Amino acid sequence: MAIKLRVSQLQGLCDEAPYTQGGTTQHARVYVAKRMVSPRVIGARSLTREIHDKGLQQLSGQLSFEARPTDGQDPRCTPTPATADHQTRFAVLLENLGDLESWKGNPEKSSAYLGKVLQLYQEQADTKGIASVLRKQTVATDRISDYVKLRTIATTALEHCRALKDALGIAEASFYLGFSVDALGARDKALPILHESLEIRRTHGDEVGVVQCLERIGDIQRRKGEKRVVLSILDEAVAIASRSGDRLGLVLALHI
């Protein structure tokens, strides 16, 4: 029954599917199925791995749509200026390849590409490049649920973004740091970190990021038994996600 309910809720999420050159409708189906019936989304509902796999199969078979442009969590090729030298073009290529391999589910290849480009940026003392790669590494590490490593990388990324006074970089790194700290069992320490990310994203009008933070904060408060707080967070998250057209955020908020 729970799986059928999720399928009906998720039928309209076709716009979240990634657009990739040469991609197919089947690729898009599997993409949405994996994102929507992920352990992070439904793990708190005590569903077993068997139910998770059945839900994934059901969604893969039932969803039907064409691939669309990506959202902020999916790989995007960073444009390279036409005047860029060979070294710069090579670094950007490696960075994009690392991001793509992470999204495709190839953590070893992703780690190799991102590690190489990080070394190049360090040799060039390219602080913005270093921060960019570290942010991509946090996302890649989150995808494989290695929370100890995620905490380490997110901490380093946060330090670099603070040095650059990159507000949105600080917000993203703070989110992943807070998420990893919570996943490692220190939810009270995670809350102020997530709230910092939330406030920055509010200030900069990043509504997708706001919903992302609210979903995490709401989930922590739910586990703490703060029902009134959770309802308030849920109302705000649903309102923002609905207004901004963030369908993925809406579904995540409804799982708080």
| DSSP strand content | under 5%
- CATH fold type of the domain at 85-186: Serine Threonine Protein Phosphatase 5, Tetratricopeptide repeat
Low-confidence stretches: 1-72
Mean pLDDT rating: 77
CATH class division of the domain at 85-186 = Mainly Alpha
In the CATH hierarchy, what is the superfamily of the domain at 85-186? Tetratricopeptide repeat domain
Name the shape in a single word: elongated
Give the class from helix and strand content and strand pairing.
Answer: mainly alpha
Helix and strand sequence: HHHHHHHHHHHHH
Number of H/I helices: 13
Q: What composes the largest sheet? A: none
Gross CATH architecture of the domain at 85-186: Alpha Horseshoe
Strands, count: 0
Secondary structure: helix percent = over 70%
Using the CA coordinates, give the radius of gyration. Answer: 18 Å
Distance from N terminus to C terminus (CA atoms, Å) equals 18 Å
Write a brief structural summary.
The protein is an all-alpha fold.
What does this structure look like?
The chain has 256 residues and is mainly alpha-helical. Among the domains are: 102 residues, Alpha Horseshoe (Serine Threonine Protein Phosphatase 5, Tetratricopeptide repeat), CATH 1.25.40; 51 residues. The chain has 13 helices and no strands. The longest helix is centred in the middle third of the chain and has 18 residues. The radius of gyration is 18 Å and the shape is elongated. The two termini are 18 Å apart. The N terminus is likely disordered. InterPro entries: TPR-like_helical_dom_sf. This is MalT-like TPR region domain-containing protein.
